[in-house]
């Protein structure tokens, strides 16, 4: 469970479907890009902006030329589709990711540690 | 559900999840790509259409143009 180290990224991910893509880490999937090329490989990391890092990738461009790459980084804006493997339970994956974020957020207990969203003192 | 995409791609599928950016998770997708080819000699327009089936797909909201309920016959 890799949770992002940035508060901003965690909140963005927590409130959108990117969190499902983050749960696909270490799965082999196909990412289709906006320009109709495809990249098939193992997802190593997805951030809140949908930038995707893949490993052991087979990249096929629009013309159909195949090429094998050890690593590939795709900018979030260029993603069109992400194929989700059949053996993924979507609801469970999302819940696991949310739990990982909550574990990080409430680390140290209620009264210890730096709080992410401090309770307001005066109103 | 029918979704119309940028660049003449249509998707017909069941909507499973969505978020405010219109990123969607679709089950049982049938994608139809329509292309127009122009014959160099006769200048005729030939419409080509290719279909593809994908069991489960995540779609980025950027590319979504239209979302519509299935058309009812009659």
Give an account of the 3D structure:
The complex is a heterodimer of chains A (123) and B (74). Chain A is built from three helices and five strands, in the order H-H-E-E-E-E-E-H. Chain A is of the alpha+beta class and 123 residues long. The N and C termini of chain A lie far apart (37 Å). The mean pLDDT of chain A is 88. By secondary structure, chain B is mainly beta. Chain B has a single domain, classed as SH3 type barrels (Roll), CATH 2.30.30.100. Chain B is 0% helix and 66% strand. A five-stranded antiparallel β-sheet of chain B has the order 4-3-2-1-5, with no helix packed on it. The model of chain B has no long low-confidence stretch (mean pLDDT 80). Classes of the chains: A alpha+beta (123), B mainly beta (74). The interface between A and B is medium-sized, with 20 and 18 residues.
> What is the CATH architecture assignment of chain B?
Roll
Order of helices and strands of chain B: EEEEE
Helix share, percent of chain B: under 10%
Any idea what the radius of gyration of chain A is? Answer: 17 Å
Give average pLDDT of chain B, whole number: 80
Order of strands side by side in the largest beta sheet of chain B? 4-3-2-1-5
Number of strands of chain A: 5
Structural class of chain B: mainly beta
SSE run of chain A: HHEEEEEH
What general form of chain B does the structure show? elongated
CATH topology grouping of chain B:
SH3 type barrels
User: How would you characterize the largest beta sheet of chain A?
Assistant: 5 strands, antiparallel
Please, how many helices of chain B?
0
Biggest sheet of chain A: strands side by side, in what order? 4-3-2-1-5
Low-confidence stretches of chain A: none
Q: Span from first to last CA of chain B?
A: 18 Å
**Which spans of chain B of ≥5 residues are poorly predicted at pLDDT below 50?**
none
What number of structural domains do the residues of chain B give? 1
- Beta-strand residue percentage of chain A: 25-35%
Largest interface, C-beta within 8 A: A-B, 20 and 18 residues
Protein name (chain B): U6 snRNA-associated Sm-like protein LSm3
Function (chain B): Binds specifically to the 3'-terminal U-tract of U6 snRNA.
Pfam family, one (chain B): LSM
Domain Sm (chain B): 1-73
């Amino acid at each position: 469970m890799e949770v992002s180290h940035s508060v901003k990224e965690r909140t963005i991910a927590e409130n959108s479907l990117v969190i499902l893509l983050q749960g696909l880490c270490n799965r082999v999937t196909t990412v289709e890009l906006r320009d109709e090329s495809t990249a098939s490989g193992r997802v190593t990391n997805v951030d809140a902006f949908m930038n995707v890092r893949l490993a052991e990738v087979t990249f096929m461009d629009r013309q159909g030329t195949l090429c094998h790459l050890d690593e590939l980084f795709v900018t979030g804006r260029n993603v069109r589709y992400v194929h989700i493997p059949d053996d993924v339970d979507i609801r469970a994956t999302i819940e696991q990711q949310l739990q990982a974020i909550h574990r990080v957020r409430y680390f140290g207990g209620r009264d210890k540690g730096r709080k992410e969203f401090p309770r307001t003192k005066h109103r | 559900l029918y979704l119309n995409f940028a660049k003449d791609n249509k998707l017909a599928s069941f909507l499973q999840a969505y978020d405010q950016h219109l990123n969607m998770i679709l089950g049982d997708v049938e994608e139809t790509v329509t292309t127009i080819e122009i014959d160099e000699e006769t200048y005729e327009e030939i419409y080509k259409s290719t279909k593809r089936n994908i069991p489960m797909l995540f779609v980025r909201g950027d590319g979504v143009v239209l979302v519509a309920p299935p058309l009812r016959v009659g």
